[in-house]
């Protein structure tokens, strides 16, 4: 277990029209209860986008970040934040005492940069970097307490030039010894044809473990917090058949809405000391 300090966060932010970063004061040694309380305050903040909060029932941000041991004083790197779903939670949560890196290829940084420009009071402390770290500054080696990536490893495995092996090596390098890597992704049954990992958006747990362990990580364990037993994983348009994408449009939309978002693995690894 990592040894860290904690912040006691304000219960909520002021209205979205004039947001401020969360305010905290140093407290005693971190406890799971203190972390959970701080995460609940961050997730309940009124500055979050309503469309994002509607997905909490599928993404379980409090339980997920608690499982990954994300504390308010940590340096946290999010790999490929996309439109900033977790950025809305993590950037304010880490604003006083911690550091939040949003790292992506240059074209993938647009969503976070837009958030920073629109609301510098809330998101102005975000550090933006390149990932993979090619042609731009990345995260300095050995500086991160936690690296998280949500539904991105399958993208690293797809296409003509997969680079998942190199990506995991870079994530390993940016972490401090004892640092945590948290991975959430769409889960393919172990009995399924591995070739489906190239087209469906789903991955086997064994594949992610192989990638992480080959890079030097030790497997800590898994949480079922993001599991969805209704998801059969065999949809005509892969995982994108399900909400929120609904790639099939109105075809069987009610059926897929009833299933909900995908069945997901939630895996925790550690960089050995």
From TrEMBL:
<keyword id="KW-0808">Transferase</keyword>
<keyword id="KW-0732">Signal</keyword>
<protein>
    <submittedName>
        <fullName>Methyltransferase</fullName>
    </submittedName>
</protein>
<dbReference type="InterPro" id="IPR029063">
    <property type="entry name" value="SAM-dependent_MTases_sf"/>
</dbReference>
<feature type="signal peptide">
    <location>
        <begin position="1"/>
        <end position="17"/>
    </location>
</feature>
<dbReference type="GO" id="GO:0032259">
    <property type="term" value="P:methylation"/>
</dbReference>
<dbReference type="InterPro" id="IPR016980">
    <property type="entry name" value="S-AdoMet-dep_MeTrfase_Alr7345"/>
</dbReference>
<dbReference type="GO" id="GO:0008168">
    <property type="term" value="F:methyltransferase activity"/>
</dbReference>
<keyword id="KW-0489">Methyltransferase</keyword>
């Amino acid at each position: 277990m990592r040894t860290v300090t904690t912040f006691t966060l304000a219960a909520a932010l002021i209205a979205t029209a004039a947001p401020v970063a969360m305010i905290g004061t140093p407290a005693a040694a971190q406890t799971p209860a203190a972390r959970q309380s701080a995460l609940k305050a961050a997730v309940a903040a009124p500055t979050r986008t309503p469309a994002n909060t509607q997905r909490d029932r599928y993404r379980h941000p409090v339980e997920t970040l608690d499982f990954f041991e994300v504390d308010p004083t940590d340096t946290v790197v999010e790999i490929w934040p996309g439109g900033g779903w977790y950025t809305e939670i993590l950037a304010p949560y880490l604003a006083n005492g911690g550091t939040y890196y949003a790292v992506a290829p240059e074209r993938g940084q647009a969503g976070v940069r837009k958030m920073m420009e629109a609301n510098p009071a809330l998101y102005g402390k975000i550090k933006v970097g390149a990932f993979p770290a090619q042609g731009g500054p990345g995260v300095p080696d050995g500086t991160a307490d936690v690296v998280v990536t949500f539904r991105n490893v399958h993208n690293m495995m797809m296409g003509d030039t997969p680079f998942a092996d190199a990506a995991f090596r870079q994530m390993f390098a940016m972490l401090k010894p004892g640092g945590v890597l948290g991975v959430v992704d769409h889960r393919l049954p172990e009995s399924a044809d591995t070739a489906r990992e190239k087209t469906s958006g789903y991955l086997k747990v064994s594949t992610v473990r192989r990638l992480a362990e080959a890079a030097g990580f030790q497997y800590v364990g898994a949480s079922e917090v993001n599991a969805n037993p209704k998801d059969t994983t065999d949809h005509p348009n892969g995982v994108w058949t399900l909400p929120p994408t609904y790639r099939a449009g109105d075809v069987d939309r009610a059926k897929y809405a009833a299933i909900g978002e995908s069945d997901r693995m939630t895996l925790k690894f550690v960089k050995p000391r």
